[in-house]
Amino acid sequence: MRLFSLTLLTMTAFAANSLLNRAGLAEGAIGPAGFAAIRVVSGAVMLWVLMVLGQRAAPKRPAPDWISAGALATYLLGFSFAYVALDAGLGALVLFAIVQVTMFAGAVRAGDRIPVLRWGGMAVSMLGLAYLIWPTESVQLSMLPLILMTAAAIGWGIYSLIGRRAVEPLKATAWNFIYATPIVLVVTLPFVWGETLSTPGILLAVTSGAITSGLGYALWYRVLPQLGASTGALVQLSVPVIAMLAGVILLGETVGLREVTASILVLGGIAIGLIVRK
Predict the structure, then answer these.
(1) Is residue 110 classed exposed, middle or buried when 0-12, 13-18 and 19+ CB atoms within 10 A define those classes?
(2) Whole-number Å distance between alpha carbons of 157 and 29
(3) Where are the transmembrane segments (predicted)?
């Protein structure tokens, strides 16, 4: 029950990131470059403060893990720029569908034994996602946001796979944010000057960075070693459903029969995949 509660809290934080990012961009309160830059800086500051408070001294700097930092930076950048043209729920669906594929591939490569029912659960969930994003007259997705969200998903999948071996989740997440900060700032700097940067937009980005990203990702590194790669990939498919529901309530986004059917398939796939977990 403790693991379930922590995992649910983490998934809610992930969904909140989609809502906060989309809310800032949809209302024109902030641009994608500014959101990504403020998000990574505020996350790094929050986690640094928590490290100092926990150790009651300036923490010793470890050797940079540039793969983790680069994967995190790729996720943050692709995520922000993709949400210029994607709704919160739909963006999360695309993101975590590809995250699931990335993490399952990593689990297979690492020699993890994945039960048949978990493969079946993934297939059912992916069927729901495919049904949702299949182009129709009412669902037309441009290529650039999909490419950007795909890059973000691969980055997050790699970041999560590395997190399976995290011994000190808070410390690992903090240094990943700190080392990802210069990467994100260098990439976003040319774009920030021409963007809107209002107080509400800054507050949304700070909230996303310090709370739902910084603390949420530290919690993710805390529960991921107990879940394993394939289960961790599967449970993340609940995020789009949470984001879609919250998007309807908070952002006024619309949901039809297609979205409801896809959500049922996604959640059903998760349930099937988790049957094998004691």
Answers:
(1) exposed
(2) 29
(3) 36-54, 66-84, 90-109, 116-134, 140-162, 174-193, 199-221, 233-251, 257-276
